[in-house]
Design brief:
By secondary structure, this protein is of the alpha/beta class. Among the domains are: 12-118, Resolvase, N-terminal catalytic domain (Rossmann fold); 174-213. Helix content is 53%, strand content 11%. It is built from 10 helices and 4 strands; from the N terminus they run αβααβαβααβαααα. Strands 2-1-3-4 form a 4-stranded parallel sheet, with helices on both faces. The protein is elongated. The protein starts with a helix and ends in a 9-residue tail after the last helix. Residues 13-157 form the Resolvase/invertase-type recombinase catalytic domain. It comes from Neisseria bacilliformis ATCC BAA-1200. This is Resolvase. Belongs to the site-specific recombinase resolvase family.
Length: 221
């Protein structure tokens, strides 16, 4: 193997970024990217994995990865929404940080156009870069729009459920309901009831309202 070929292999370095939001599945599937990369000849310098919202740019592992990046390295993520769900302008700024470090982004089977071996300023290189930049912008916009759509649907679902009288939050125990109503029937104030039962005044008020509205009932003796 020639000296140039050896250098090419040495420089094929990847850093893998994995993310799930706290309510999603675990990271095991994304961590399989390490094997995927190694099978394709990459040396994986490090895997950065965290549970955080893609809507936040200040994720600890993401920031650490960007800081560690060296020129010529590749950032691998399972999909664009794993890397970012930020609004388009902020998402583009995030990608710019990666590019400014001299690295590039690779999304398996999505954003992985053939490397151009010609000179950087060749026409072929310019065309490929333009196509890649356009595809990247589409993916960034799609990830952001998908996040907004999910939030909109979730809000609509909650609003609909509330209008149908469905309750949200932690279920209140029957004993707690009985104790609150018993204290109130004895003429104790909301603050006194809360202190005796070691709960918040908001909880006492909520229970009283739910019972008054017929959504909860007191146990029959």
């Amino acid at each position: 193997m020639g000296e140039k070929s050896k250098m090419s292999e040495i420089n094929k370095i990847a850093r893998i970024y994995c993310r799930v939001s706290t309510e999603e599945q675990d990271l095991s599937r994304q961590l399989g990217l390490k094997k995927w990369a190694e099978l394709r000849g990459f040396y994986v310098a490090k895997v950065y994995a965290e549970k955080a919202s893609g809507r936040h740019a200040d994720r600890p592992q993401l920031l650490e990865m960007i800081k560690d990046l060296q020129a010529g390295e590749i950032v691998i993520a399972e999909s664009m929404d794993r890397l970012s769900r930020l609004p388009l302008v902020e998402a583009e700024a995030l990608i710019a940080q990666i590019n400014n470090r001299g690295a590039r982004l690779l999304l398996p089977e999505v954003l992985d156009l053939p490397a151009v071996k010609a000179a950087e300023d060749s026409m072929e290189s310019i065309v490929f870069k333009s196509i890649q930049d356009l595809l990247l912008k589409i993916l960034l916009k799609s990830a952001s729009d998908d996040y907004e759509m999910r939030r909109s649907r979730q809000a609509a679902g909650i609003s609909r459920a509330k209008s149908e009288g469905k309750q949200f939050g932690r279920r209140i125990s029957q004993k707690r309901i009985d104790d609150v109503i018993s204290c109130r029937k004895q003429g104790l104030s909301i603050s006194r009831t809360a202190k005796i039962l070691e709960c918040s005044e908001a909880t006492v008020k909520r229970i009283c309202k739910l019972v008054a509205d017929g959504k909860y009932s007191v146990s029959k003796v």
